[in-house]
Amino acid sequence: MLIAVVLVACFGFALLYFHFKQRYRFWSKRDVPYLEPSFPVGNVADIFSPSLHFAHLIEKLYKKLKGRGDYAGIYFFRDPVLLVLSPEFARTILVKDFNYFVDRGVYSNEQDDPLSANLFFLDGTRWRKLRSKLAPTFTSGKLKAMFHTIVDVGNRLDQHLAARCVCLQRIDIKELLARFMTDVIGSCAFGIECNTLENPDSQFRVMGKRMINLPKLKSLKVFFAMMFQKEARALGIRYNDKEMSEFFMKVVRDTIRYREAKGIRRDDFMQLLIDMMKPDGAGSGEVLTFEEIAAQAFVFFFGGFETSTTTLTCALHLLAKYPKAQRKAKKCVRSVLAKYGNELTYEAVMEMDYIQCVINETIRLYPPVATIHRMTSQPYQLPNGKILPVGVGVIISNLAFHHDPAFFPDPFAFKPERFEDKTFGKSCPSYLPFGDGPRMCIAKRFGILQTRLGLAILLRSYNFTMDESDFDRPLLIDPINLMHGPAGAVWLNVERSVEGNTNK
Q1: Which residues contact 257 (CB under 8 A, 6 or more apart)?
Q2: Distance of alpha carbon 336 from alpha carbon 243, whole angstroms
């Protein structure tokens, strides 16, 4: 009996081995340069490293393959993936030939995990329809309408700090800003006063932490689901755990019921979604279901609070490290506000050009989304004439582009002045913090607005410094965070400026 079991196991292993070996001929058959894979991990053995973020794994592969052309082949376990090596070919994938790469290939399971049916996860026709419905919610007019909501939360942040920073205080700026952004997104996405600034253990903050942390075991489960999507759906594998899903579904359901019962309307993202549930608010298209509404509110929260938290945290860390840039940023804020009677208006915030330079340079150094994923949605002819079949993954390492001295001289220095020419960021193909093309970040303008406003409020009234011992210490990246952001606390010394304004 034991011998039979051993023989079956050996036979099964041999079949698996030869299956992988067959798959590992994919790139050689298509005359694509590639890294020799190892059974069974392909080229991603480092995925098991507890201290390496996925974006850095891809950046390492980019460095190994750079110089072999516009693209090269790698393997995620058994699956072939095209790694883009030049910004020009990246733009071809994202913009010019977008119709061949509509999908991200991200695993979703709408039946067991309704929150996964969101704009970020969806593919094909459903993505196109939903994108066209949601795009008008981020126009300048809609952002202006939401602006006062963000300012209200910003004023509470100012009051919170003013009470604590009369004299120099050492503060974990990452945690503070995460609570601030939780309140902003909670208010704009759900119309709920989370009050996380004063209550750091609020449910929204707890769920926010759970959303972005991806321990290695869960990471491997997600990899399995990505490679074997039909099998994963049959097994009921979820991206979001049940408790978190039920929390957000309940929040959305209660919000809708409350507003309908009280006849309340608000200038926020949730109201725009609620209107799309009604035939007269959906335009000429189909109305959205409750589940679709909940999924979009969820991804808005998921994408909105963490990306902006990361950007604000890294920006203040860099400004504390580069006091000359901080002084220039303060001057920008105060001079613009003086023109507007020291009132934080939408027009004033959008006029702070150097603040935008600081943001642009921060997300060059620390892009919150540091890899861009696409998948062939129809057969695609490579420049060498060979065909990629449907379902082949494509990865663009915008982090690698941003850190490549060939594209950005002295790439690890903080130089906001790189972006003082406003056309640079728009025309530079190697600068991709929000992706590019029809599937670029839909909420880019909202994210920039809340980040600009956060910096304006903080720089108007506070000075940020760091201890001398921290100057040469790199900002470590959290390996289990879905986003590319700082690990652990980010301590800065915060003091209210003598010339800082009170809440105006």
Answers
A1: none
A2: 46
